[in-house]
Amino acid sequence: MAPCHRRPLAAVNLGVALREAFIAVNDLVLARLAAQGRTAIRAAHGAVFQYLDDAGTTVSLLAERAQMTKQAMAELVVYLEAHGYVTRTPDPDDRRAKLVVPTARAAR
Fold first, then answer.
1. Which of 23, 52, 87, 98 is deepest in the core (most CB within 10 A)?
2. In 10 A of CB 72, how many CB atoms?
3. Residues in a beta bridge with 48
4. Is the confidence at residue 7, as pLDDT, over 80?
5. Confidence of residue 5 (pLDDT cuts 50, 70, 90)
6. Is pLDDT at 40 greater than 80 in this prediction?
7. Can you tell me the distance from the alpha carbon of 92 to that of 65, in angstroms, rounded to the nearest whole number?
């Protein structure tokens, strides 16, 4: 079979294209949440939800995964906890640490 020789398409920056797709999907999710009355959720909270394990995750690990400071992640977690989307519980493997755990409200 002969190789296919196509003219190259206009140069597309893959990183930019992926970012734009992510923003579009995120905007749809936020609009649906708002339509359901969940207006407390903002785009920044994706940094918590996308890296949060079902069994719970420490703020330190969430911050590392999201590539942000622990302080900034802690602020997001405090906000989400105040609005009933996460709870903080003692880590059974480390008495000094707490796990951020999604609530049933977050699962819905």
1. 52
2. 14
3. none
4. no
5. low
6. yes
7. 21
Q: What are phi and psi of 88, to 5 degrees?
A: -115, 125
The pTM (predicted TM-score) of the whole model is 0.80
**56: which 2 tokens?**
């719970």
The Cα–Cα gap between 17 and 30 comes to 20
As beta bridge partners, residue 101 has: 87
28 vs 33: CA distance, rounded Å = 9
- φ/ψ of 44, rounded to 5, equals -60, -25
The residue written with tokens 């903080």 in the block is 88
Q: How far apart are CA 82 and CA 56, in angstroms?
A: 17
The radius of gyration computed from the CA coordinates of the chain, to the nearest angstrom, equals 19
Q: Which residue has the tokens 């906000």?
A: 79
